[in-house]
Design goal:
Layout (H helix, E strand, L loop, with lengths): L1 H6 L4 E7 L4 E9 L5 E8 L4 H20 L6 E8 L9 H14 L4 E5 L5 H11 L17 H20 L8 E5 L3 H12 L3 E5 L3 H10 L3 E2 L3 H4 L21 E4 L18 E2 L12 H7 L3 E2 L2 H4 L2 H12 L3 H26 L3 H15 L2
Parallel strand pairs: 3-4, 3-5, 6-7, 6-9, 7-8, 9-10, 10-11
Antiparallel strand pairs: 1-2, 2-4
Helix pairs in contact: 2-13, 3-4, 5-6, 5-11, 5-12, 11-12, 12-13
Bound molecules: phenylalanine.
Phenylalanine binds next to strand 3, strand 5 and helix 11.
Length: 366
């Protein structure tokens, strides 16, 4: 843990051990240079607390870039609640309240929202002690609700921009799009894609979701992700070795991270990658690997900002959902086009182009 913190380029990290549940709480504040740190609360069990802290530090840095690239006045933060493998459901609300108290203590330098493993309902509970530093409570509780639909809208916009860049045409009619993971982001994305006339393939492990998308909507299921689970990092929803070679125009990872790696990239048969999952690349070198294969990569944090962007716009600027959605479409489209152009003109990867834009903003703010 010492070396993780020594090597990290962020501002501060807070740790608390929650004795009643055996949960490690980590809050990572990567940067408050552009504004208060904002980022979701990830709640899951990890093999050990060090792995949980590493995840928090890395995800918090990602949030700094996520907000800096479109010019939003927020810094990057993230929280991880590393629970034991079987957290008693009855212990959950009190754990969330103790966590909320910790958020409150930070006095607004870190503001939270849902992430993997937490929901808007959970944010209602966190806000009992953590208010006013909690975003995306349920709409009934006065929050902006689930960030999934607006994230899906941003990813959909990103897919249109990628198609325009590759094919000279943003029209998705007849394009093959493989959506990995059909949760609130992937599922919402599929709706937009079908409406636009795309041919959607999907991967999913949940039986109920499979029945809905395959049997109900008649979409093609690719891969059996269960078989690969042991070989992949955690419950990443990563595609099996066979599925990864699925031929498609666009591959859209919308499950957990780490899907694009030294082993999967050589086998990909897509023209572009535009997905909602955070941290899709296993290592920074994977950007170069994708570029070498001629696969256009839309940096994950550039296209998955929609949920945070819309939620923050509604809660801090009082925008109606429709207006917030329009901002997401306009911003993702403008920023992604700029990144694709900059990557070409500067002869760098799209990831490097995104980082340059973010770093210029951070440097300008001092
Ligand atoms: N989990 C969201 C993300 O990674 C964070 C977020 C959601 C922030 C909604 C604000 C509002 O972008």
């Amino acid at each position: 843990m010492e070396s993780l913190l020594e090597k990290w380029d962020g501002e501060s990290a807070v740790a608390r051990y929650d004795r009643p549940t055996g949960t490690w709480m980590f809050i990572a504040i990567h940067s408050t240079c552009l504004g208060p740190a904002v980022g979701g609360t990830r709640m899951k069990s990890y093999p050990d607390p060090t792995t949980a802290l590493r995840d928090a530090l890395r995800l918090a840095a990602g949030m700094t870039y996520k907000f800096a690239v479109p010019g939003m006045p927020y810094g990057g933060g993230k929280a991880v609640l590393a629970t034991p493998p079987h957290l008693d459901p009855e212990a959950r609300p009190d754990l969330l309240r103790r966590y909320g108290a910790l958020v409150h203590q930070l006095g607004g330098s870190y503001r939270t929202a849902p992430d993997v493993g937490t929901s808007s309902e959970d944010m209602n509970v966190v806000a009992e002690t953590g208010a006013p530093y909690v975003f995306a409570r349920t709409e009934a509780a006065g929050g902006s609700g689930s960030s999934g639909p607006a994230t899906a809208l941003g990813v959909f916009t990103g897919i249109q921009v990628a198609c325009e860049h590759i094919f000279g045409d943003a029209d998705l009619a007849g394009r093959r799009v493989w959506v990995q993971g059909t949760g609130s982001v992937g599922g919402g994305l599929i709706e937009h894609l079908l409406e636009a006339g795309a041919r959607v393939l999907f991967s999913e492990v949940d039986e109920r979701a499979i029945r809905h998308f395959r049997d109900g909507l008649g979409l093609e299921l690719v891969g059996n992700e269960d078989e690969s689970a042991g070989g992949m990092t955690g419950a990443s929803g990563a595609a099996s070795v066979d599925a990864i070679a699925t031929e498609c125009d666009i591959f859209s990872p919308c499950a957990l991270g780490g899907v694009l790696s030294e082993t999967t990239i050589p086998r990909l048969r897509c023209k572009a990658i535009v997905g909602g999952a955070n941290n899709q690349l296993a290592t920074p070198e994977d950007e170069g690997r994708l570029q070498a294969r001629g696969i256009l990569y839309a940096p994950d944090y550039v296209v998955n900002v929609g949920g945070a962007m819309a939620g923050l716009a509604m809660e801090t600027r009082g925008l109606a959902r429709e207006a917030a959605d329009r901002e997401v479409i306009e911003s993702v489209s403008r920023v992604l086009k700029h990144i694709f152009e900059r990557a070409e003109s500067d002869g760098i990867t799209t990831g490097a182009a995104a980082r340059r834009i973010a770093e210029e903003r951070l440097a300008a703010a001092g």
